[in-house]
Amino acid sequence: MSCSNADTDSKKKVGILLSGGVDSAVALYLLLQEGYDVTAYHMKTVKDDLYVTRAVKHKVCCSPSDTYDAHLIAKKFGVPFKTIHVEDIFKEKIIGYFIDENLKGRTPNPCFLCNDYIKFGVVMNKALEDGMDYLASGHYARIVDGKLYRAIDTSKDQSYFLASIRKEKLQRIMLPNGVFTKKRIREIASEIGIHVAQKIDSQDLCFLPDNDFKSFFEEHRVDIQPGNIITSDGKIIGRHNGLPFYTVGQRKLGIATGSKLYVKSKNVDGNFLVTAPLNEIYQNHMVVKQLNVYEELSNEFSATVKIRKKSNEIRCKVVSKNGALLVDFEEPAFAVTPGQIAVFYDADKVLCSGIIEH
After folding, report:
1. 326-329 contacts: CB < 8 A, separation 24 or more?
2. Residue 56 has pLDDT above 80, yes or no
3. Is 3.30.470.20 the CATH number for 282-356?
4. Catalytic pick from 61, 111, 206, 352?
């Protein structure tokens, strides 16, 4: 297998983002198999006491148990291990972004920003300063000739989340797992005796292990006020608990409406939630801004676009104008959500990404 754009060379130094999970552990092993000089970098995004004072309801990254597992993995393979503390900058740039976007009535994707700003930003810069030639991770995607592609295992593909990484960084990034299926990665881990071979995958937000949004905003001294829930024709049908607790397309409203209604939009100025029947939640257009472009794009082009991590891609026609993309879907798209990420593809190749404006 080939780990990267680089020729295999035992003199090449590679930093690996070692999370403590099976994916990065096998990525580390694959790099060593190709003869690279590897150093493990384990990042801490939040203080460990968060996981002591919270009921952890889902597996998240960067927990104390992950740090312990990462230590054991590095020890097993005899590679240097460095813990990188990014708690302060993570709080400022990622948690701060999450709060600000919610207060604007949007639904942010902080993991997308973290990949660019923290993992392949702050931590990558540290690794390069340490003399590493490349930074690697256990993500499922491929980098070919300095371009970002979908993973071979499309069911585990993470190119959607990695599409925030700046184009110029790709030449210094290695993704060994992109040419394997997840099933094969677990098999390799079992074959070589990695203790986390069957460890469950991390999901959702590392700074919300209990998924308690209400407590989160209270602790950050953010005043979230209840308000009215209305229909698209202006009829008041109930009360909401606070706009950040809802997102476009959400069905569960906590009120009896007599008919199936979904969140259509959030109005911050009036602090009200607009609901509508299912047919009104589909959209034919969107505007995407804050672009990260990988390919030279014409003023008009066709592509497929993914508008949330679990959605199917939709064919679309795109017009590039004044730093924004005006997108027409070939078929209506469900719950196009401001603040979420749009990633555009040409077959398996990532063309560009951006944030949905409206």
Report:
1. 326/285, 326/287, 327/285, 327/286, 327/287, 327/288, 328/284, 328/285, 329/283, 329/284, 329/285, 329/286, 329/305
2. no
3. no
4. 206
| Residues of each domain in the chain carrying CATH 3.40.50.620 | 13-191
Q: How many CB atoms lie within 10 A of CB 207?
A: 20
Residue 206: active-site member: yes
Tens-place pLDDT, residues 166-203: 999 999 999 999 999 999 999 999 999 999 998 888 76
Among the options 3, 62, 114, 352, which is catalytic?
114
**CATH code 3.40.50.620 for 13-191:** yes
Tell me whether residue 56 is exposed, middle or buried, using C-beta atoms within 10 angstroms of its C-beta: 0 to 12, 13 to 18, 19 or more.
middle
Candidates 88, 101, 74, 85; CA nearest to 20 is: 74
What does residue 169 show for φ and ψ, rounded to 5 degrees? -85, -20
